[in-house]
Amino acid sequence: MTSHNMTWISYPSKSQPFNSPEEIEAVITSQNIISRVMHCYIALFVPTGLIAGICILIIFIKNHLQKKRASLDLLLLHFTISNIIMIFFSFTVISRPDYLTATHLVCSVLSFFFNFGYFNSQYVFILILLTLLLERFPPSTALRKATQRPILCVGFVLTCAFCLSLTEAVLVGTDDYYLEVHCQLDPLFAWPEYEIVKFIFGFGIPSLLQILCFTVLWAKEAPAEAPSLQQHIGAYPAVYAISATMFICRLFYNVMILFRTALKLQRSIGTTKNELVMNIAEIVLFCESCASLVVILFHKPCKDEVLKGIQRCRRKSPANNHIEIPEAAPAHPSGSQ
After folding, report:
1. CA 60 to CA 140: how far, in whole Å?
2. What is the CATH number of the domain that holds 60?
3. What is the Cβ-side half-sphere exposure of residue 76, based on CA atoms within 13 angstroms?
4. Which of 9, 129, 158, 304 would be a feasible disulfide site paired with 213, CB 3.0-4.6 Å?
């Protein structure tokens, strides 16, 4: 693969000579919007997502220590850890509307670990859907043995995520690694192939696999002893809610990535509006990680533990432990005048 010279590219808000008041006003408006979106995300989504993630970790680890081990719960634990890592990487947006300043090498390393979490969460969720599908449609002996060994499946997912992240790190480019640049987790100076590979393996193929799982779930006739489709979906509403959330948020994000690739191929840096929408798409991706963690709390084992915790707190509340003050005995009048 031939190397691309990407030294010409820059963010519209950082490079254009603004000669008219309209252009200056557009930049100011764009920066105000992204700043407000960022503050909303940091103030609302990050605390909610992290609190939900910590609760899920405590519940699943506690159940694991009590030998309440289920393949689905172990996969959801892995999915939770991936999303918590994604939230920590989202702290890179705190500087918006400005960008982090780092060398090409540091930016490439950040991109590698971010993509590792991104691919990991995407493919482990496909594994979760496959586990639910095989629960409704009993698999062959070999496939059943594979699904009953979730650690082996997770190891396979981690290997795939590592290989894809390493490929993306190469496609960021290795030239001028010592130069300082404005850094995003998806570097602007990456080769066009970077976004194309990320779209194909990070959204295109996983989305096709999700559609295939749902098609089989709805169209294939289940065995007589299997629960009805309504009962099956009702037993795992959190997983299917996460599926819809991930698809919508990642669709928006990946469409914007492809649009940025089209601009690169045209050797255009775009407009401040394009830059604004790409920044919003990045924050929407991080919002999806937070929302997924909150939805997992409605998964039955988590929901049961949360309800037990609330009931214990109610029993220990001061309202139920109030101290009754005995009434004073009435004083008897003295017989002396």
Report:
1. 29
2. 1.20.1070.10
3. 35
4. 129
